[in-house]
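Retry 2 of 3 after timeout on previous attempt. Resubmitting structure tokens to design endpoint.
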């Protein structure tokens, strides 16, 4: 087993005062960190800039033993998100610059590398999406995170390739979340997982809905909870867990992510 890989955005999450802290981030890289923390040999494919922020991201990934051989270091700036946290622990994105991640296109070598992995999880723009067809054709399970409403059309294009479509309905009802899952599966995804924020998550697989309440937590910072949930599902499925067990693991991982500042938590 070669282990999973992620492809997509990486950035620096910059907490504004009074926290005043830089942490590594980006949806795809956060999932890689979660998979690596679960003991899986994990790789990330993406891009950082030729700047201090890029060097910081690569150094922190190395500390977590994430394989970054196929992270391109490109002229330009590393993605940067500025964040504040409410007294209730809810993260607020004050600004977001994707930097070189916005136009990153994986090399042929990176695509061949992804074909050797046990699972590939993706986020990001069309140039990343274009590579997934070749990876799926090699028989690699693929998941994609549709965390942004404009990416709904991209899900429709990708659904037939997906082992799991990950979606989000933090303010919707259970019925709304189930409808999102059914739509993804009707378009070709084999299964769909919908995050419901403080209300937990659900999974539609083989025509059956599995519902999982949120695990209680002392919330410090909600940043990265959804990515931790995704890593929990993927890691559990790779180890042969049932959907119910995978969702329990996902809820536990999401709760743990809320107990510290930053998506990755303390070293």
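Retry 2 succeeded. Sequence:
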């Amino acid at each position: 087993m070669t282990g999973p890989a992620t492809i997509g955005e990486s950035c620096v999450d910059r907490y504004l005062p009074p926290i005043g802290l830089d942490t590594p981030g980006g949806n795809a890289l956060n999932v890689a960190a979660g998979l690596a923390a679960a003991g899986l040999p994990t790789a990330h494919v993406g891009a950082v800039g030729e700047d201090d922020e890029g060097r910081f991201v690569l150094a922190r990934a190395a500390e977590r033993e994430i394989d970054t051989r196929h992270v391109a270091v490109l002229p330009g700036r590393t993605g940067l998100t500025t964040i504040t946290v409410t007294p209730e622990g809810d993260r607020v994105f004050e600004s977001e610059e994707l930097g070189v991640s916005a136009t990153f296109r994986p090399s042929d070598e990176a695509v061949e590398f992804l074909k050797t992995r046990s699972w590939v999880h993706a986020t990001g723009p069309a140039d990343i999406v274009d590579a997934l067809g070749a990876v799926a054709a090699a028989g690699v399970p693929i998941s994609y995170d549709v965390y942004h409403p404009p990416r709904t059309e991209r899900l429709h294009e990708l659904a037939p390739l997906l082992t799991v479509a990950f979606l989000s309905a933090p303010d919707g009802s259970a019925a709304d979340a189930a409808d999102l899952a059914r739509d993804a599966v009707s378009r070709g995804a084999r299964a769909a997982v919908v995050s419901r924020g403080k209300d937990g998550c659900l999974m539609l697989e083989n025509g059956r809905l599995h519902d999982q309440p949120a695990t209680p937590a002392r919330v410090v910072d909600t940043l990265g909870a959804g990515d931790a949930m995704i890593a929990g599902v993927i890691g559990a499925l790779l180890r042969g867990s049932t959907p119910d067990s995978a969702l329990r693991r996902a809820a536990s991982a999401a709760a743990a992510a809320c107990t510290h500042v930053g998506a990755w938590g303390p070293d």
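Attempt log closed. The domain at 141-261 is CATH 3.40.1190.20 (UDP-N-acetylmuramoyl-L-alanine:D-glutamate ligase).
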